[in-house]
Specification:
The complex is a heterodimer of chains A (154) and B (680).
Chain A (H helix, E strand, L loop, with lengths): L3 E6 L3 H11 L3 E6 L2 H8 L15 E4 L8 H10 L8 E5 L4 H10 L3 E4 L4 H18 L19
Parallel strand pairs in A: 1-2, 1-3, 3-4, 4-5
Helix pairs in contact in A: 1-5, 2-3, 3-4
Chain B lengths: L1 H10 L12 H32 L16 H15 L4 H21 L9 H17 L4 H27 L13 H17 L7 H4 L3 H29 L5 H53 L4 E6 L4 E4 L1 H7 L3 H4 L4 H4 L3 H16 L3 E9 L2 E13 L5 E10 L1 H60 L5 H32 L5 E3 L1 H15 L6 E4 L5 E3 L1 H18 L7 E8 L3 H4 L4 E7 L31 H11 L3 E6 L5 E6 L25
Parallel strand pairs in B: 7-9
Antiparallel strand pairs in B: 1-2, 1-5, 3-4, 4-5, 6-8, 9-10, 10-12, 11-12
Helix pairs in contact in B: 1-2, 2-3, 2-7, 3-4, 3-5, 3-7, 4-5, 5-6, 5-7, 6-7, 9-10, 15-16, 16-20, 17-18, 18-20
């Protein structure tokens, strides 16, 4: 089975490490450390101009990101014709009601609070990977690809 | 009475006198009006009768021939006099009627006896006097009015004499030489009364129609004396004529009956006078009490109130006035403002008074008075008191010191500003607290997760290589991290309970408790709990928060009764055992368990943040649960207290607003609310 591409937007290297620990066995993970880099990756520009074309199959998005925060990135993704079909799972420490509401308002596909306890954390992240990048059928190629040159925000 | 009122209205325009209090004036006006009708009708009938007799071919055969006939001029003059009395408003018509009657009388008196005006001297006088009275009635010159009254008394006398002598004797002229027919005499008699009552408020008639005691007595005595004397006279004359008794006895009888009759009238009058006097004294007392009440009210107000007559002298002053002027009331009454307070203040007050008098309208302004203890602002209001005709007879002044009110207003503004500032500060603090909670929620959890995660990774990687002690250390790290996570979660929940706005909805308590119970049962390990859940009324408040209250209390009960081999939990609503704790409520919800209980000496610690009465080894928990319960209930206006003893279980009581109006709100199904679990 072909490995699915997952974009992980997470600024904490330790969280990145833990997430990779849980996911990299079965998936192809790309990591970006801030909101701007996430958009650069998606639109294949800047530092990511040379990456393989194609939208990721899943975006794991932290909310507290430097530069553009997670909610701003989410808004951009869901506003873009070429990206809005990509499933976005918000993966954050925040349990706050306003964050939850805003994320869903902006079109998040799921919202997961990172558990503190290690086993629970690992289990949660694996389940996300299993469902969104495994069980869930991702949109067919060509429905939208923001990485190809053409329309898209500069 | 409606006719009387109409007549009064029709006459109101040319009143020479105004007697505002007399209710007899309209009565006499009505009376005179009716008498006018009577003698016009009599005269008209007599006129028709006399003319028909005169024109009848055979006079002796005329069916009415038995009736006494009057000369045509007399009938005509009385008809006119009646019309004049009825048509009083038109003075020129009255004057014309009077002149005509007067000339008839003059003509007849001078040319008697004559074929068409065979009036004798007495009838001539009667017509003359009637004519003069009608003519003079059109004049409003007082002297003419007095002469008219004299003429009417003369007419009254003349006709009265003729009538009485007719009644007393069987001789046609009464044996007095008077040749006045009784219809003429009767009409003259009625005419005299009617015309006297035409102006009931004029001259002597004022004594009859007025409101005074004298008038009252007059109205009683005059008719009584007339009737008494006329009746006794008739008795004497009739008795003598018919020889009922000897002549000398008749006179004695007349004298005794007169004395008795007069005495009776006097007794009646005295009694009536006494009654009137008593009423008057009571009225005076009443009015004096009203005056005292008014004065008391005036004296107990802080405003300066005074009243001045047209001469600028004070008629009334209140205590505040005397205090401000530094004078006694007696020193103020009867003096002018400048006399009492010489200088600019007195002049200002006098000026206000003049202004109100000149404009005849209230004058209101804010003025600053240079008082000895500094300038003070007064709201001054001067208004004239007007009589019924709109003429001012006094000026009332009210002076309100508004410096205190201004100071109070400033104080209120200052307090409002400070309150606003405090609210702003509070809001800023709340915002800061929210930001803090957010940071705690997000940032404090991340390092914990990392400690836990990497600790676990370490133990997975080299757990086998570590010795027993190192594995224990790693275990401690993991346990502490879990506990820290729980503490952070609870602290956040507690801080949210303080900040989140409260909804006010009807909450079905029984459903909510049932759901929480089954949740707790499903999570529980250990002996089966015996639940007793009684009748639970609905509550009113924030559904999510009230659910938290029940979750915390019920999970506490389950936790602390867990070590009892036969745990029992009772939930219900009933009378409060210690009303002093309930702050006025007579019934409360309660949750009772047969668990560990606690020592009541530490009851005050029970609801404090991070306060625990049992060690964490004994019963796990962070010590936030009950603090949160108390905070939520306090925010709902309720309260919670507990009763327990070590080893014998605990009972928690709480009161919360009840949903008493069934249709007040849409009940929220308890299942629609997600619990935010917090362990106590």
């Amino acid at each position: 089975m072909k490995l699915k591409n997952i974009l992980l937007a997470e600024d904490s290297p330790m969280d990145v490490e833990l997430t990779l620990e849980a996911l990299q066995e079965h998936h192809n993970i790309s990591v970006v450390e801030d909101g701007e880099a996430a958009l650069d990756y998606l639109y294949r520009r800047g530092a990511y101009a040379g990456r393989e074309p194609g939208n990721p199959d899943l975006i794991l998005l932290d909310l507290k990101l430097p530069k553009l925060n997670g909610l701003q990135v989410l808004e951009q993704i869901k506003k873009c014709e070429l990206l809005r079909t990509v499933p976005v799972v918000v993966l954050t420490s925040s349990k706050e009601q306003p964050d939850l509401r805003t994320a869903y308002d902006l079109g998040a596909n799921a919202y997961v609070v990172k558990p503190v306890v290690f086993d629970q954390f690992m289990e949660a992240v694996r389940q996300i990977g299993k469902f969104w990048a495994g069980l869930n059928e991702t949109p067919p190629r060509g429905v939208g690809d923001a990485s190809r040159p053409g329309p898209g925000p500069a | 009475m409606a006719a009387g009122a109409d007549i009064r209205n029709s006459l109101g325009s040319d009143e020479a006198f105004y007697v505002p209090d007399s209710r007899f004036v309209p009565f006499f006006r009505t009376l005179s009006f009716r008498m006018g009708w009577v003698f016009s009708a009599l005269a008209a009938f007599g006129l028709v009768d006399t003319l028909s007799v005169m024109l009848w071919p055979e006079r002796h055969a005329h069916p009415w021939n038995a009736l006494p006939h009057q000369p045509l001029p007399v009938l005509l003059s009385f008809l006119l006099a009646g019309v004049a009395v009825l048509g009083r408003a038109a003075r020129w018509a009255q004057a014309a009627c009077g002149a005509l009657i007067l000339s008839i009388g003059l003509f007849c008196s001078l040319h008697a006896p004559h074929a068409y005006c065979d009036l004798d001297t007495y009838a001539g006088w009667t017509v003359l006097l009637t004519g003069f009275a009608v003519l003079a009635g059109a004049s409003r010159i007082p002297m003419v009015g007095y002469v008219r009254q004299l003429a009417l008394f003369a007419l009254f006398f003349l006709c009265g004499l003729a009538l009485i002598s007719r009644i007393y004797t069987t001789v046609p002229d009464g044996g007095s030489g008077f040749h006045l027919g009784w219809p003429t005499a009767l009409m003259g008699f009625i005419a005299a009364h009617a015309m006297l009552f035409q102006r009931p408020e004029f001259g002597v008639m004022r004594l009859v129609s007025g409101d005074g005691f004298g008038c009252h007595i007059m109205r009683r005595l005059l008719p009584s004396v007339m009737i008494l004397l006329a009746g006794l006279g008739w008795l004497l004359a009739e008795g003598e004529a018919r020889a009922w008794y000897p002549e000398s006895f008749g006179e004695s009888l007349y004298a005794v009956l007169s004395i008795t009759g007069f005495s009776g009238i006097l007794l009646f009058t005295a009694a009536s006078l006494n009654r009137l006097d008593k009423e008057r004294r009571e009225r005076e007392k009443e009015s004096s009490r009203s005056r005292e009440q008014l004065q008391a009210i005036l004296d107990h107000t802080s405003a300066i109130i005074c009243m001045k007559g047209l001469d600028g002298r004070y008629l009334l002053v209140n205590d505040a006035f005397c205090r401000a002027a530094g004078k006694q009331p007696a020193e103020c009454i009867g003096r002018t403002a400048v006399e009492i307070i010489p200088g600019p203040i007195g002049e200002m007050v006098a000026r206000n008074y003049q202004e109100a008098l000149r404009t005849r309208a209230p004058v209101e302004q804010v003025e600053i008075f240079p008082l000895p203890n500094g300038n003070r602002s007064y709201l001054t209001s001067n208004f004239p008191l007007l009589d019924n005709e709109g003429a001012p007879y006094a000026v009332c002044g009210i002076y309100t010191d508004i410096d205190d009110i201004r100071a109070q207003q400033k104080e209120i503004e200052r307090l409002n500003a400070s309150l606003r500032e405090k609210t702003d500060r509070q809001e800023a603090a709340n915002r800061e607290l929210e930001a803090f909670s957010y940071s705690v929620s997000h940032d404090l959890r991340a390092p914990l997760r990392h400690i836990a995660g990497f600790g676990e990774l370490l133990s997975q990687r080299s757990g086998a290589a570590l010795d027993e002690k190192s594995r224990h250390y790693l275990g401690v790290i993991q346990t502490s991290v879990s506990r820290m996570g729980a503490l952070i979660d609870d602290l956040l929940a507690f801080s949210r309970a303080n900040q989140v706005g409260l909804a006010a909805q009807r909450v079905r308590t029984a459903d909510m408790v049932g759901e929480i119970r089954s949740d707790l049962e499903s999570m529980r390990k250990g002996p089966v709990v015996e639940w007793t859940i009684g009748e639970l009324p609905d509550m009113r408040g924030d559904p999510a928060m009230l659910r938290q209250v029940w979750i915390n209390l019920l999970s506490n009960a389950v936790k602390y009764s867990g070590k009892n081999p036969a745990p029992r939990i009772e939930v219900g609503f009933g009378p409060v055992p210690h009303p002093a704790d309930a702050a006025g409520a007579s019934e409360a919800f309660f949750v009772r368990d047969n668990g560990a209980g606690f020592d009541m000496r530490y009851a005050d610690k029970l609801f404090g943040v991070f306060q625990r009465l049992h060690s964490a080894q004994e019963y796990e928990g962070t010590g936030i649960g009950l603090a949160m319960v108390r905070r939520i209930l306090e925010r709902h206006g309720g309260r919670i207290w507990a009763n327990a003893s070590p080893g014998a279980g605990a009972t928690f009581y709480f009161v919360v607003p009840e949903a008493d109006a069934p249709a007040a709100a849409n009940p929220v199904p308890a299942s629609a609310l997600s619990p935010e679990g917090t362990s106590a």
